[in-house]
Write a structure and sequence with these properties.
Layout: E1 3-8, E2 17-24, H1 38-51, E3 59-63, E4 68-75, H2 81-97, E5 102-106, H3 119-133, E6 150-155, H4 159-184, H5 192-201, E7 208-212, H6 214-220, H7 223-229, E8 237-244, E9 254-264, H8 284-298, E10 304-314, E11 326-328, E12 334-336, H9 344-359, E13 363-368, H10 373-378, E14 383-387, H11 390-403, E15 407-409, H12 414-417, E16 427-428, H13 437-446, E17 455-459, E18 465-466, E19 476-477, H14 482-493
Parallel strand pairs: 1-6, 2-4, 2-5, 5-6, 9-10, 9-13, 12-16, 13-17, 14-15
Antiparallel strand pairs: 3-4, 7-8, 8-10, 11-12, 14-17, 18-19
Helix pairs in contact: 2-3, 3-4, 4-8, 7-9, 8-14, 9-13, 11-14
């Protein structure tokens, strides 16, 4: 984040600088009467009339004196939390485009526009959106590439409440930014070993970390996961990340499982070279899990949760897994490998069964950039949601709609499940009959829920990164899923 944020008491005497105020979308200046004189209000009205402000213009910028520049931020009375987040993100872009590096925002001007008891929440959502949009990843430029650096002073009579409550949003941002950083790292840097080193550093936040190397996983029978990485010189790992924020509870922990394929060539079933560089994003599911657990730890979430991530690299090589191989998974079920590019489900298969057996969780939610088919189905608007539990699915859907990280439930059905049967093993890892690629992948995963644990699968292939900037993020890694699951936990389990 390239934004410095300060909370302070308001000073109605405007010194030299740039100041921002909230007004309604009708350009009503009533809420500014206690800040500006009648003469100044009259001048502002005259300027606004001259500017011919359109209904689509969110921000109005002008000089009120030689030394004071004013920015008016338009908003509607019915704005929800995610509307304020989007408004904050757009405001950041406005400041950046106008090269405004320091600004004082009088947030109390919202008082006459929304319910007073909602002011703190709305202001924090506005700041949250602004900060999320400010993310940059410039680590690998050889020269000192200057980033836009913004200093914001938040003026409010509730500055202490704002400052204290912002700590929770800051924790969320830290988790999102970690996820974005991990997804943005090049694959020659973020191999499974280095990934493990990053995860281990999170122990200082109070997270309990345990790492399983290849020898340990071999003893456990995780041959599905190990098979994916056996063609790479980089060793595979499984990491568990536990947060025990409710030590008095004897209830089952919440479990999150992430696919961590640090680079996916497709293995022997080699991918076409065009856009293969994007396969560094194939560990995004694991990055969401890691970012989420960091957020829970930073905000001291009153919940017990565990994150499990399988970390591998899928490469062709003399020892690589072959199409036609059969492997025995952690669950004991056998899998015929028809296509080595359907590797993420093999990693998740062992990780899911391991999580269910060892943690006996309340539910399991897995995340993965699993199929290109989900992008064909839903584009970059929704993540695919699959579940064996209507209640769990409904909670995830409602949360996604509330915060703008949308999911759409797709069906699971026995007729799809049968398509994954193999004539010579318990199952095959891909459906060659045609169609329903995302659904049959989810059906494959469901086979590794052995004890009727409520389970949901989020296929985030279309959401983990974007080739163009979106509402709350620049081009590249989005961090999709951290905010969704954090809010899901807050609303339902704390």
């Amino acid at each position: 984040m390239k934004t410095d944020l300060f909370f302070k008491k308001p000073n109605n005497v405007l010194k030299e600088g740039i100041f921002a105020f909230f007004i309604d979308d009708k350009l009503n200046l009533k809420n500014l009467y206690n800040i500006f004189s009648k003469a100044e209000i009259s001048k502002i009205k005259s300027i606004l009339k001259q500017q011919n402000i359109s209904a689509d213009d969110l921000f109005c910028k002008f000089n009120i004196t030689e030394n004071n520049q004013i920015i008016l931020i338009k908003q509607k009375k019915n704005f929800e939390s995610n509307d304020y987040e989007n408004l904050g993100a757009k405001f950041y872009e406005f400041l950046k485009n106008n090269k405004i590096k320091k600004i004082n925002i009088f947030v109390d001007t919202l008082e006459n526009l929304i319910k007073k008891n909602n002011i703190i929440e709305k202001v924090l959502n506005f700041i949250h959106g602004l900060n999320l949009k400010s993310y940059v990843f410039k680590k690998y430029f050889s020269t000192n590439k200057k980033s836009f650096k913004l200093t914001i002073e938040i003026s409010s009579k509730n500055n202490k409440n704002l400052s204290d409550n912002y700590l929770e949003f800051k924790a969320i941002e830290s988790g999102v930014f970690l996820t974005r950083d991990l997804v943005s790292e090049p694959p020659n840097v973020l191999n499974p070993k280095n990934y493990v080193m990053i995860i281990n550093k999170l122990s200082k936040l109070g997270l309990k970390i345990k790492i399983y190397n290849e020898l340990a996983m071999k003893k456990l029978g995780m041959n599905a996961l190990l098979g994916v990485g056996q063609g790479s010189i980089n060793k595979s790992y499984l990491a568990t990340i536990e947060w025990n924020g409710n030590k008095k509870s004897k209830g089952k922990p919440l479990a999150f499982v992430g696919k961590g394929v640090c680079f996916d060539t497709g293995g022997i079933s080699l991918k076409p070279p065009r856009f293969m560089e994007e396969m560094k994003y194939d560990m995004a599911g694991s990055a969401v899990v890691v970012g989420l657990l960091k957020t829970l730890a930073l905000r001291k979430a009153k919940v017990n949760a565990v994150g499990v991530v399988g970390l591998v690299e899928n490469m062709p090589g003399g020892n690589a897994q072959r199409p036609g191989d059969i492997v025995k998974s952690f669950s004991g079920k056998t899998i015929e490998i028809l296509n080595t590019d359907a590797e993420g489900r093999l990693v998740l298969a062992d990780a899911i069964s391991f999580t269910e057996k060892n943690f006996k969780p309340k539910f399991i939610i897995d995340l993965a950039t699993l199929t290109g088919a989900i992008i064909i189905s839903l584009g970059e608007e929704y993540a695919g949601l699959f579940s064996n539990n209507d209640e769990l699915s409904s909670k995830i859907f409602k949360t996604g709609s509330k915060i703008g990280e949308k999911v759409w439930r797709l069906p699971l059905h026995e007729n799809y499940n049968k398509l994954m049967n193999s004539p010579i093993a318990d199952m095959q890892n891909i459906n060659y009959s045609g169609g329903a690629g995302s659904i049959t992948a989810a059906e494959f995963l469901q086979r590794f829920i052995l004890n009727k644990t409520p389970w949901a699968h989020l296929d985030i292939a279309g959401m983990a990164f974007s080739k163009k900037a979106a509402n709350l993020n620049p081009r590249g890694a989005t961090g999709f899923g951290v905010r969704l699951l954090n809010k899901f936990i807050q609303d339902n389990y704390e």
